[in-house]
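Entry for the shared binder. Reason: the reviewer on the internal report wants the predicted structure included alongside the sequence.
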Amino acid sequence: MLSSLARTAAILISFALGALIPQAHAAAGAIPGLIMGMIFLVFLGTTWTRHSLHRSQFALLVVNLLMAFAGLALGWIVGGRTVGLAGFFAGVAPTAAAAPVIINFMRRDVTYVTAAFLLTNIVIAVLLPVLLPWVLGEVDVTFFGRIAGSVALLIFTPMALALLVRRLHPAATAWPGHLRNASFAAWMVTLFLVMANASYFLRTQADVSHVVLVEIAGVTLFICAANFFFGRWIGGRDYPAEASQSLGQKNTSFTLYLALTYANPLVALGPTCYILWHNLWNAWQLHRVHRPKKSGIADPSAP
């Protein structure tokens, strides 16, 4: 439990430091490289077969896409286009690379969540070059090509490299376990740079209303809660925690980069806020699983 609390504290510290040091926005160009490195390690250590797939995982994929447009609609109603886009980028993010790790701590089926990670990340990466031009209102071949290039760089390049390395050096599948702390450190640096970028934007844009920030935080909190709830419902009796985690814990680093590149740092606060919400929920879940049990009461999470 100490480890999960320490990681949650590290996330909050990264947020705080980024807000206090807006000058670090000058190093935001490092974000794509950090994201690619983390995704490379995930694909390097991921193994699955067609037997790992379940119908509920395809239902999660559909709901994942629906929640993106629900976030867009809700945000637009609450605060207009900017809040709507923040809701979309938070909602469209696929399953997080860290979701299998959390499920492992919860003593549940890691294979289910790993398969959900691969399915949602690959399919949503294919769809985003088509969806984003329409959502952002820039429907032309050039814009489509730029987004496709960004998606290929962030997702498919590290995936192809991981497959190549696995084939040439099978022992490399052990690298992610050895580099777990380094991967987490890279994620903290990414959060710091993202928050610094957002802080710089807010400090230099005097016309940004605090009401908008509250609206973005509120919309993303609603999306986060809905994702965990609907995921548990889709998982049913067999995979309630696994499906909830697959839908609720999101690969926001991916959509953060796209929001920063094709929208603005204010819109990027959507997936940024989502990071805070899903990690707070993760800390609570891990607390429930690992808290001391009263004598005579069985642990419901035990296998």
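Summary line for the report: The chain has 13 helices and no strands.
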